[in-house]
Specification:
This protein has four helices and 15 strands. With 194 residues, it is α/β, with parallel strands linked by helices. The chain has one domain: Hexapeptide repeat proteins (UDP N-Acetylglucosamine Acyltransferase, domain 1).
Length: 194
């Protein structure tokens, strides 16, 4: 029973972080009913639990594909997502099978945590806690994005990004080091660095 309570607690945290981070959110019920990013994360959490059981891998993939069709957000059930992930708007977000995402991460629409090769093994990025990924950004390959880093809108990241850094451009370059602090909606929009 405690496992079920813990699962519900994680789902509640996903709902609450969307309400807190999105200034357009008016209520928890609105977020629960009308936010595809929340729906995709919730479906992922169920699919990921299924994925851990070898006999349920095909149903897990089918659930993830149905969720993709419904939300426009593709999250492989094998990915590892931390607590309080917020996917804002969501359309076009892709998170690959070996991606790892820390706690309190924000992904804007069109962002990709993808691979650069077709080989087996670790081929997708690892994001630390508090990372913000701007709209349209592509983080490709088994790179590491340090905690509290910011990836600018439409950046293409193919190399590691240190903790607290801001990466922008194609290919992404470190433009400045951000002060490591809590996420602030007024100043943490990665698009301002482009």
């Amino acid at each position: 029973m405690s496992g079920v309570r813990a699962f519900w607690s994680v789902l509640k945290d996903d709902l609450e972080v969307a309400r807190q981070r999105d200034p357009a959110a008016r209520s928890r019920i609105e977020v629960a009913l009308a936010y595809p990013g929340v729906h995709a994360v919730w479906a992922y959490r169920l699919a990921h639990r299924m994925w851990r059981e070898p006999g349920l891998r095909l149903p897990a993939r089918l659930l993830s594909q149905a969720t993709r069709a419904a939300t426009g957000i593709e999250i492989h059930p094998g990915a590892r997502l931390g607590h309080r992930l917020f996917i804002d708007h969501g359309m076009g977000v892709v998170i690959g099978e070996t991606a790892e995402v820390g706690d309190d991460v924000v992904l804007f629409h069109g962002s990709t945590l993808g691979g650069r090769s077709m080989r087996h093994g670790k081929r997708h990025p690892t994001l630390g806690d508090g990372v913000v990924v701007g709209a349209g950004a592509k983080i490709l390959g088994p790179v590491w994005i340090g905690s509290n880093a910011q990836i600018g809108a439409n950046a293409v990241v193919v190399k590691d990004v240190p903790a607290g850094a801001v990466a922008v451009g194609v290919p992404a370059q470190i433009r400045l080091r951000a002060e490591v602090r809590n996420w602030d909606v007024e100043i943490d929009d990665p698009a301002i660095y482009i």
